[in-house]
Amino acid sequence: MFRRVILPVLLVLLVIGGWWGYRLVWGRPLSIAMFYERAMIETALDNPQALTSIGLVDNTWLDFHSGKLSDASPAAADRQIGRARRQLAVLRAYPRASQTDDQRLSTDILAWWLDDQVRGADFRFHDYPVNQLFGEQSELIDFMVQQHQVPSVFAAHRYVARLRAFPAHIDQLLESLKLREDRHILVPRFVVTEVIAQMKGILAPAPAASILATSFEEKLGRIKDLSADDHRRLSADVIGAITDAVYPAYRKLLAYEVAYEPRARTTDGVWDLPDGDAYYAYQLRSQTTSDMTPDEVHAYGLSEVARIEGEIAPILAPLNLPGDTVGARITALSHDTRYNFSDDDAGRAKILDGYRALLAEMWTHLPDQFSLLPKQKPEVRAIPAFKAETSPGAYYEGPALDGTRPGTFYVNLSHPSETQSWGMKTLAYHEGVPGHHLQLTIAAEQKGGPTFRKVLGFTAYQEGWALYSERLGWEMGFESNPLDNLGRLQAELFRAVRLVVDTGIHAKRWTRDQAIAYMTDNTGMGTNEVRAEIERYVVMPGQACAYKVGMARILKLRDEARKAQGAKFDIRSFHKMVTGAGAMPLEVLEARAASWERE
After folding, report:
1. Domain layout of the chain by residue ranges
2. 191, 194, 230, 573: which sits with the fewest CB atoms below 10 Å from its CB?
3. pLDDT tens-place string over residues 209-228
């Protein structure tokens, strides 16, 4: 009797469980919420470094990855496109009518992201994996130093394992570089020249003096109850891995770059690549999440440059500065030692302390504009010296989802004298609060909802928000001093100039020198900073255009909401609508704003 009743029931349960498991892992999961997480897991499982950056499962029983590096081979790029196609097909199979409003928002965000990858399939090898700004040769080291946390002996051993994985990763990278060369995707020569110099600098210290070793020593010092024997053994293991694995792999990559340099092209824009015009059009759409053409972006940039320079002129007029252009006058002001910092460690310390004070001040006033606030405050640090010379003036790195790594505002202190005190408020608001730190930390701290909405990034949204935040600081009264307001306007002018030079380089065949001259004439920025910026646009086509496009769209949505809601309009509610659901394409944000206005 027992067998006649129980065995059929168990068989049915086994069949149902197998069917459910098949759908969950390979087919279409019963719940779209399950599919959201599966899509995230599928993507993350193929990218161990991304898993560490997200910071949810490192040093847990689920940690299978933290001793590995991500696959840099052409096959990995092919897998990514194939996975995006499959995931998009499954996502579109879920009936939209049966989804909640929040699920429809998630579906729209994920569908745009997946579709963007599929659209870019033909261009997956058009980028430059090794470059002076964010190339693998520097990002790998930065990842180990900044991202790989060492809270335990287990994590320390995984750190060593990752160092030992460098040779295989570099071999995969070399395979990708050779494939690009075979397809005539050639890198501008100046990029190769600067990469060679950067790599020689990386290899210059003895292994024990490498930042990979010295930063590891600092991390070991924070492990509680670490025995002296374990400390010595781990330190020796790291130095051995750098000596036997990291440095030989880097010498191999360096040798390739040295041999490649004469074959590199002497032009700068992607127009000179196979299907370069189509590639740039794709990049503009991907970065701005809009359908603006290169000509439209260029014209918009020129008009914004003229408008902003018109607002700057009255601020500069009473200062009686030399020069025939706005850029020349700002250059003259930037050399006024009353507003500069000394080119030494004292100047660097003063800059960092200044940014920390500005962010602390703004933090106390955020509730005036925001009902939704981040729990963690931002940290302020210097960009590591090994990559500072080819890095932009500043950047922000978001927090780990588990809270173990705070969001950090990195400042370039390679030339402290090029920092003007009247521009510091604007940069602090952009990179810290209410800019990147507020938006990205709120996204990471979302309760419920799919994981991908905490980590996906869309440049136009994120950078548009940060640029909007610069203006918001002025609207809040923090840049009422004319020179502080000049800092804000110069920063916006800088982003408008970017529209012109990015499209100039990649669509209108400007040389790098033409772009440098235009940016210098119209912004008054320092020579080193202008050069680094223009060289950034060369290797990141379209990205610099996203800032102004995103800011303009957010301001437009705010103006439309004010008109539609009248006296009911609440700025705190508007900001919650914009930041409360994570990053998204601008067209999805527009739909969300329209729905919010009707509530």
Report:
1. 31-124, 277-553
2. 230
3. 999 999 999 999 999 889 99
